[in-house]
Design the sequence.
């Protein structure tokens, strides 16, 4: 990118190189579901703009990959589901139109767990993505394609979505930066909803600065999304402010039982580094964390059951003739295209909020969410940041945990809190273990997104990771 | 005792756009599926954008029904599968976290009886299904989404009605009220729909769904009471159930039990943040609230001396009262009220007639003037009206074209009076003994002059000649 900015190479040349890289490595990691065949053409038109002295956007020529649950006009948007196999989005998501205005180039749509439900990208209907650090390992999920594509130099940045860790988890597993902003900071217009009350689009980049750069473009109030907040910031300026004098709480419930000793020691090292930079770190408790995963699954299943109800294939979807069916039998037939994990959550989503059971499940989950929020806000009265490993276990191999619910519980437990409470959280790659990266997570109070980036930048400056082997 | 409760659905037909998207709220003039967008079609990635104007109009209704307004309102999802529902859930309101609908408990007095309002809520209307083909084999269902997402207000009453008559009175007053508030045009097809619940002494509550008009609502309630009473008189228990109104056969039929068991899995619509009902907004609405029908009527009677019955007709129809308000002054108020409620009414009593009518308040003012200054007679005014409604021409032109000018030339009138006296010897005799019957002779003069004779001069002439 530096060379492009200096004019040493053209946008077209740089884009061609990126496309070549994708062709080279994507056979083995399968981050992409569709590659943009017009990318070179778009690069040429940006070069033309530059030559003719026209004003070009801040992202000129920047190759970006987009999770395939975010709409790009006239482009297939499948959510990695057979259910939306032929769905072509008729509009741009707000994040897409903002990037387009800045002359970004979308190199393609990347893989995810079907409808963003999963932690490993194994639930994609189009086959899993592999971890660029070791292709026998999962890249994390659900934004596995996003994290892998950034990690493998198939693009400079990617947009993912984070419902319960879906940006931070794969960022941690793939050794890149993943950020889940304050709820409402980034417009969700054009993001295909899974659990709309807690999810956010988030950037995945190689550096914290790139994340700040992306945020400057994509964040901010949007009249197409009533839940967006208006808090204009320059996330790049003062990113090197440091963390001297800041108070950091170490969430004990996230470094306790089940944590991999290697991850624990990496977290301790990170804490030592932060203290070295002038912060003070203390152990804190967040009692409600132990109920957070159960509450998370109850709430997400309920919202997913409603959000995905529209996929009846009447208006779009896949090739399946409507005629000759009675409505109810048609609906059941049409919806058999959902994969196993989506089906499981649909069934759960039909049960937990239902009249006879809501009191025991859904309403309880909402109570947990409320209490957890109150508890964490209490902590933020005293602490600037909370810290924990992004995932308390190391990246694992394919098939290793997919059928082990307790193991998967551990994969979720450190990330869902930020979603349930609406707080900003970032995963920063910190150490390597056996050639696989470990990420550290920093959480702050609502609207402290800039502050999170400053802390992440400080921590990042103490790290030097090896080159990705692929 | 018979208990009847109502759920009235009224479209906010006077809004520009739908409840959550920029499509037109007036969907009626479009080809099927031409008034749609990604939001009202629920396309993947679309999000609702709350139409604040709709919240204001619904609040206006709540205020007019003396409802409390909450500090904040919230929206909920009602989840069920139906082909007219693009998202397979409907965005509506619910009071599970206290009152978060636009209107809380309220009341309205109808003929001295207090009807309690449970709540007023704002929600989106689904699309429309059109069935084609006659046998079940070749029947097809067509879906038109033009209506999907249009704003609908639901007004729920307590079971305070005791008979269909009270229901009818309430519906009349309610539809006048909605029209008077300028929020809805009740005469539009499908603008008003209703559900009702009916129970008689000793029976269970029966819900009647899908009543497509106010007219049918009264019929449905009447049918249901009769049905329940007939069961009861034969000692057959009345089960608690949901019934549908069959508008072709005009009867209620039992819904399949499956429908009764529907579980809507209500929960908060996270895409629409809670809306604070700002004091400023409420005050502004209260200030802008049009004068109520009853206070209008009261004013017409006390200020202009218009008879109560006339004032009633005038005030309860916004079309008439608007005409009145635009044209009256201190002197002509009574005359104008009279013209509207006797002669004009039959010419503009339906929506179609009103749309075609070229009649304006200026015409009304001219007419009253012409009558009061004796330019034309009341009779001639009546004859001029159809022509004005049809053509919209100036009154003066119509008087000239139809030759309606007042006959006040005494010598000319005198001739006609003489003619009548010689033709009506019997009546003349009577009039001499009983002056009251002279009006018959005035009528005869009118007949001969096609209503143009000045009644005062005619009467004086007659009296003189009969002495
Ligand atoms: Zn629309």
Sequence:
């Amino acid at each position: 990118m530096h060379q492009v900015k200096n004019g040493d190479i053209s946008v077209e040349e740089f884009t061609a190189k990126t496309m070549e890289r994708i062709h080279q490595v994507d056979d083995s990691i399968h981050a992409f579901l569709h590659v943009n065949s017009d990318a070179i053409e778009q690069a040429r038109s940006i070069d033309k703009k530059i030559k003719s002295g026209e004003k070009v956007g801040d992202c000129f020529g920047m190759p970006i990959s987009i999770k395939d649950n975010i709409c790009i006009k006239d482009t297939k948007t499948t959510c990695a589901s057979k259910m939306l196999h032929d769905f072509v989005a008729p509009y741009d998501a707000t994040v897409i139109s903002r990037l387009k205005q800045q002359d970004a180039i979308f190199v393609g749509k990347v893989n995810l767990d079907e409808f963003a439900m999963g932690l490993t990208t194994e639930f994609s209907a189009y086959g899993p993505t592999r971890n660029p650090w070791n292709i026998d390992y999962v890249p994390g999920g659900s934004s596995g394609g996003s994290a892998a594509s950034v990690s493998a130099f198939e693009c400079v940045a990617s947009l993912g979505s984070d419902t319960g860790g879906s940006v931070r988890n794969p960022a941690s597993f793939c050794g890149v930066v993943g950020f889940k902003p304050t709820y409402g900071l980034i417009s969700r217009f054009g993001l295909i909803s899974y659990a709309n009350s807690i999810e956010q689009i988030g950037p995945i980049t190689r550096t914290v600065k790139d994340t700040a750069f992306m945020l400057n473009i994509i964040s901010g109030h949007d009249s197409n999304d009533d839940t967006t907040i208006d808090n204009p910031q320059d996330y790049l300026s003062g990113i090197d402010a440091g963390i001297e004098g800041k108070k950091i709480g170490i969430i004990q419930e996230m470094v306790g039982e089940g944590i991999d000793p290697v991850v624990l020691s990496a977290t301790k090292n990170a804490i030592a580094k932060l203290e070295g930079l002038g912060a003070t770190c203390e152990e804190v408790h967040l009692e409600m964390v132990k109920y957070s995963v159960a509450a998370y699954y109850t709430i997400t299943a309920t919202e997913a059951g409603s959000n995905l109800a529209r996929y009846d294939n009447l208006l779009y979807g896949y090739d399946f003739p409507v005629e000759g069916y009675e409505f109810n039998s048609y609906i059941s037939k049409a919806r058999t295209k959902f994969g196993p994990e989506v089906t499981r959550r649909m069934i759960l989503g039909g049960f937990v909020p239902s009249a006879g059971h809501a009191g025991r499940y859904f309403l309880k989950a909402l109570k947990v969410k409320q209490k957890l929020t109150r508890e964490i806000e209490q902590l933020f009265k005293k602490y600037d940041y909370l810290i924990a490993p992004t995932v308390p276990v190391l990246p694992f191999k394919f098939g290793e945990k997919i059928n082990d619910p307790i193991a998967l519980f551990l994969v979720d437990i450190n990330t869902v809190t930020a979603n349930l409470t609406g707080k900003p959280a970032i995963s920063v790659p910190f150490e390597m273990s056996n050639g696989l990266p470990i990420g550290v997570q920093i959480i702050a109070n609502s609207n402290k997104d800039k502050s999170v980036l400053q802390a992440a930048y400080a921590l990042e400056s103490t790290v030097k990771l090896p080159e990705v082997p692929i | 005792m018979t208990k009847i409760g109502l759920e009235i659905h009224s479209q906010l037909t006077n809004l520009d756009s739908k409840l959550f998207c920029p499509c037109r709220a007036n969907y009626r003039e479009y080809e099927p599926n031409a008034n749609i967008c990604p939001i009202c079609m629920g396309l993947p990635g679309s999000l609702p954008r709350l139409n604040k104007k709709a919240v204001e109009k619904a609040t206006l209704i709540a205020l007019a029904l003396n409802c409390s307004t909450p500090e904040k309102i919230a929206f909920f999802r009602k989840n069920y599968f139906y082909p007219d529902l693009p998202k397979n859930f409907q965005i509506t309101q619910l009071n599970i976290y206290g009152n978060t609908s636009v209107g809380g408990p309220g009341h309205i007095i109808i003929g001295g009886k207090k009807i309690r309002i449970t709540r007023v809520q704002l929600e989106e209307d689904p699309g429309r299904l059109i069935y084609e083909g006659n046998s079940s084999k070749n029947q097809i269902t067509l879906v038109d989404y033009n209506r999907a997402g249009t704003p609908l207000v639901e007004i729920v009453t307590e079971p305070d009605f005791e008979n269909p008559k009270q229901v009818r009175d309430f519906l009349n007053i309610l539809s006048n009220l909605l029209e008077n508030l300028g929020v809805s045009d009740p005469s539009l097809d499908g603008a008003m729909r209703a559900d009702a619940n009916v129970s008689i002494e000793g029976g269970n509550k029966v819900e009647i769904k899908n009543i497509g008009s106010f007219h049918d609502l009264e019929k449905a309630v009447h049918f249901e009471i009769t049905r329940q009473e007939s069961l009861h008189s034969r000692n057959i228990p009345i089960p608690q159930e949901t019934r549908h109104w069959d508008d072709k056969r005009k009867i209620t039929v039992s819904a399949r039990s499956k429908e009764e068991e529907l579980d809507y899995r209500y929960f908060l619509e996270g895409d629409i943040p809670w809306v604070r009902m700002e004091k400023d907004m409420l005050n502004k609405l209260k200030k802008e609230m049009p004068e109520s029908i009853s206070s209008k009527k009261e004013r017409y009677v006390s200020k202009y001396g218009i008879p109560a019955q006339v004032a009633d007709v005038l005030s309860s129809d916004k079309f008439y009262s608007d005409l009145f308000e635009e044209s009256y002054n201190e002197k002509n108020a009574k005359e104008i009220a009279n013209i509207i409620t006797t002669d004009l009414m039959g010419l503009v009593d339906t929506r179609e007639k009103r749309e075609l009518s070229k009649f304006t308040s200026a015409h009304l003012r001219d007419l009253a003037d012409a009558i009061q200054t004796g330019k034309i007679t009341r009779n001639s005014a009546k004859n001029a009206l159809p022509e004005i409604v049809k053509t919209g021409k100036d009154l003066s032109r119509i008087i000239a074209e139809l030759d309606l000018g007042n006959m006040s030339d005494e010598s000319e009138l005198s001739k006609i009076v003489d003619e009548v006296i010689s033709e009506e010897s019997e009546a003349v005799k009577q009039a001499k003994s009983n002056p009251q019957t002279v009006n018959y002779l005035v009528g005869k003069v009118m007949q001969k002059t096609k209503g143009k004779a000045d009644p005062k001069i005619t009467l004086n002439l007659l009296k003189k000649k009969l002495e």
User: Anything to note?
Assistant: The mean pLDDT of chain A is 95. The pocket of zinc ion is lined by residues B 18, 21, 23, 36-37, 39-40, 149 (CB under 6 Å). Residues 20 and 154 of chain A are 9 Å apart (CA to CA). The domain at 2-218 of chain A is CATH 3.90.1300.10 (Amidase signature (AS) enzymes).
